[in-house]
Design brief:
Blueprint lengths: L3 E3 L8 E4 L1 H10 L8 E3 L14 H15 L7 E3 L4 H9 L4 E3 L1 H7 L5 H24 L6 H15 L3 E9 L20 E10 L2 E2 L2 E7 L4 H19 L7 H5 L21 E4 L6 E5 L16 E9 L6 E11 L2 E4 L9 E3 L3
Parallel strand pairs: 2-3, 4-5, 9-15
Antiparallel strand pairs: 1-2, 6-7, 7-8, 7-9, 10-11, 10-12, 12-13, 13-14
Helix pairs in contact: 2-3, 5-6
Length: 346
């Protein structure tokens, strides 16, 4: 919302607006952009400077003038994400604003070979972090200490953004939150983690579940079911299959304790990965049954399953990142997850 860009139909390069000092940096080091395409801009820092200061008004006037110079003054302007005051000002100055977010997501649906390599590298970094986690996952360590360890290791390996680390253990596993606390890990806990970071802009979403020291039959049964649901989904992945067919192999919400698919959304779930954490396709009983999407070669997405244990508080969570290939699928997430991993077994 602070930095923004404009790309017109016939232009070879975009115009970029940024903080003034950053503009100088872009002009020095982003040599693929003409210097005049890097411009200082400031819209108010998400409302910290009120719209009445005129920054948004002048920014829209500048953009409108550039469109008129390009012969596009009367054409619609596609916007993917925008603050309401900026949208209102565009309309006030006579620009026709249309939703470009859908087109942007369409354009990013199929990943190139280079993009898949970056996604694989990002996942490889998380492979290593999980090795670090199981080495220290012992009674007495706290969830937030695991989060700190994961952040440190990812940045050491070259992550450009650690977006979130979920660390959930013991009685916190069921129902499933998406956060971490300072809870102490205890013997016999079931614990799952989600590591979300980006490498050169390309994201991971990568859950793993472990037990600490030992595991009960209830915990093992939950993990076995979550793995079965995962394997059933992976086996469906190939070009031409509909996302409704993939979602159909997962249990209905009522089958694992929820009133409906909206209440259970995100537990048995798939989502595209790329420059965004949630891209196309989205695979879920909530939407895929009525609006299925055909799987295509080059799609990359994460598949997630979750199974609460019958002890009432434990749960298993598994996630695999998958590339749709010409002949089927390739799994990018390689830390062992076929069986329940008991860390530092007694």
């Amino acid at each position: 919302m602070t930095r923004y860009a404009l790309l017109t139909r016939e232009a070879d390069t975009p115009w970029l607006w940024d903080f003034g000092s950053a503009v100088r940096h872009h002009q020095l080091y982003s040599n693929w952009l003409p210097d005049e395409n890097c411009r200082p801009g400031m819209l108010g820092l998400r409302g910290a400077v009120a719209p009445t200061a005129g920054l948004i008004e002048s920014a829209v006037r500048e953009i409108k003038g550039m469109l008129e110079t390009a012969g596009l003054g009367g054409e619609p302007v596609g916007v993917d994400i925008v603050e309401p005051p900026f949208l209102f000002e565009m309309q006030r100055q006579g620009l026709t604003v249309v939703d470009a977010q859908q087109f942007m997501l369409d354009a990013r649906e199929i990943k190139s070979r280079d993009e898949i390599m970056l996604l694989s590298q990002a996942a490889a970094m998380v492979d290593g972090v999980y090795q670090d986690i199981v080495d220290v996952l012992k009674p007495g360590i706290r969830e937030n200490e695991i989060v700190a360890l994961a952040n440190k290791r990812l940045y050491e390996m070259g992550s450009d953004q650690v977006e979130a680390i979920n660390a959930i253990s013991g009685e916190r596993c069921n129902p499933h939150p998406h956060n971490f606390t300072d809870r102490l890990i205890r013997p016999g806990d079931q614990a799952f983690f989600d590591i979300i970071h980006s490498f050169n802009g390309y994201r991971t979403c990568y859950y793993r579940t472990f037990n600490v020291g030992s595991a009960t039959s209830s915990q093992r049964d939950a993990y076995t079911k979550a793995r079965e649901w995962m394997d059933a989904a992976i086996s469906m992945i190939k070009p031409g299959v509909g996302t409704d067919q993939v979602a159909a192999v997962w249990p209905k919400a009522e089958d694992f304790g929820f009133a409906g698919e909206l209440a259970a959304f995100g537990l048995q779930f798939g989502h595209g990965l790329g420059l965004g954490l949630h891209e196309r396709p989205i695979i879920s009983r909530l939407n895929s049954m009525t609006e299925p999407v055909e799987l295509k070669t080059g799609m990359v997405f994460a598949l997630e399953t979750y199974c609460p244990a019958d002890d009432g508080f434990s749960a298993a969570r598994i996630e695999e990142e998958v590339v749709v290939t010409e002949h089927g699928r390739q799994v990018l997430t390689l830390f062992p997850a076929q069986d329940l991993f008991v860390a530092n077994r007694y």
